[in-house]
Amino acid sequence: MKHGADIVLINPGDRRRIYQGLGAGLAAIEPPFWVAVLAAYLRQEGFLVAVIDANAENITPEETALRAAKLKPLLSCVVVYGSQPSASTQNMTVAGAICRALNDESIGRVALAGLHPSALPGRTLSEESVDFVIAGEGPESLRVLLAELATDKPDFSRVPGLWYRDGSDICSNARAALISDLDSYLPIAAWDLLPMDLYRAHNWHCFDDFEHRSPYAAIYTSLGCPFSCVFCCINAPFGKPGIRYRSPERVVDEISLLVETFGVKNLKIVDELFVLKEEHYMAIVEKIIARKLDLNIWAYARVDTVKPENLVRMKQAGINWLALGIESASPSVRAGADKRMQVPDIAAVVSSIRNAGIRIIGNFIFGLPDDTRETMEETLQLAIELNCEFINFYCAMAYPGSRLYDIALEEAWALPAEWQGYSQHSYDMLPLPTRSQSAAEVLRFRDEAFHRYFTNPVYLDMLGHTFGTSVREHLVELSSIRLKRKLLGD
Description:
The longest helix is centred in the C-terminal third of the chain and has 16 residues, at 439-454. The protein has two domains: 7-172, Cobalamin-binding domain (Rossmann fold, 3-Layer(aba) Sandwich), CATH 3.40.50.280; 182-479, tm_1862 like domain (pyruvate-formate lyase- activating enzyme), CATH 3.80.30. By secondary structure, it is of the alpha/beta class. Helix 4 (61-69) packs across helix 6. The chain starts with 6 loop residues before the first strand and ends in an 11-residue tail after the last helix. It has helices spanning 15-19, 33-44, 54-57, 61-69, 87-90, 92-105, 115-119, 121-127, 139-149, 182-185, 248-262, 278-290, 311-316, 331-336, 346-355, 373-386, 403-411, 439-454, 457-467, 469-479, and strands at 7-11, 49-53, 75-80, 109-114, 132-134, 162-166, 169-172, 216-219, 222-225, 242-245, 266-269, 296-301, 319-327, 359-366, 390-395. The radius of gyration is 22 Å and the shape is globular. It contains 20 helices and 15 strands. The strands form three sheets. Strands 2-1-3-4-5-6-7 form a seven-stranded mixed β-sheet, with helices on both faces. It has a six-stranded parallel β-sheet with strand order 8-11-12-13-14-15. A two-stranded antiparallel sheet has the order 9-10.
């Protein structure tokens, strides 16, 4: 059979199930950077590569498989990452459906890669309709796997990080070594293979220019995180905490390409912790300023890594939003989740960011192991007092790859019956209980907290004053959407 592509990389997604009523126009549609960078690396190695972004194109698993079939690939690989670490598991339901549809078309071998498959490789291979599961980062594993598939007698024992079947036995190989040279293995992504006209930024990201949420791009400047918060699964593909960096030159070259070739202004820096290593992030800031790039950037920071003396230059580079993982108002609750912050005054950090003209999106978690009804209320009150331009309220979830997942198994806590139940916004979402609160009590508190925050007149007045009437009205409309929850009997 003549192949039209060596590999088809597929980004799965199901916005209707994952976001309910928020998916149609409110949720962002983010480009799958990891898919695009894998495509660029494999193309650099001489392979013919195609990409199908089923999430952005909003096509069914069957439509995805038919499109892949036309390319007659040696390998179809569904890459399950998502726009944030927690988004990988929630996409496994539709990823599994795509794999079944691919097998129905009988078009070659099928693989699953990404964060969730790396966290649960054996279970994934056993449960899903795939030939291979790739544990680890992926570039070297895919390169060697494609080379073996091109031979008459492939030897899968040579492929690092590969889980596969030998008859009725499940076999696995040691993972590839962690990438040390990120510039070689993470080249400028194959943006030309993506439907760049379909991506749009988060609603809050564009409060200053609400009618222009596209074009939009998202890039990594580093991989991993050196911290070990119990609720986070980001390091599942890497096997351990740690952080490695792309060169600032490569990062800004990529940003320049996005601006000049695709007209991108709205940009997300996907790194779990961009504002950490000062010489890295400030080198990127200075190079963006030197190239006079017109950008609207958002990036993640910890409260205790923000340096006020850098904020003015960061703003000049177009960093208009910082996402802060505040998580809880209670130091003891944060400590119990291994999220210790060496900052005595969160409000002072928030004030310094605002004084530089940078907006804040605050991230808070309800239902951490030591949370009580009282500490959750304290967290809500802190959010209301900080009055961030936008917030995310999450429930603590046992994401595969996190230590909370291991604890949940040890304690026999109920976990979602379907992978989509790990989505914070899905109908069948099932959070963890705490030592004093049931899962239903945690979820009910989170949903009510959301509406208390976004209907607060002080918040709405701040929005209207800062961004104008249209943004205020948008948030009024947003807060009118009540998510239905199976756990709460809706």
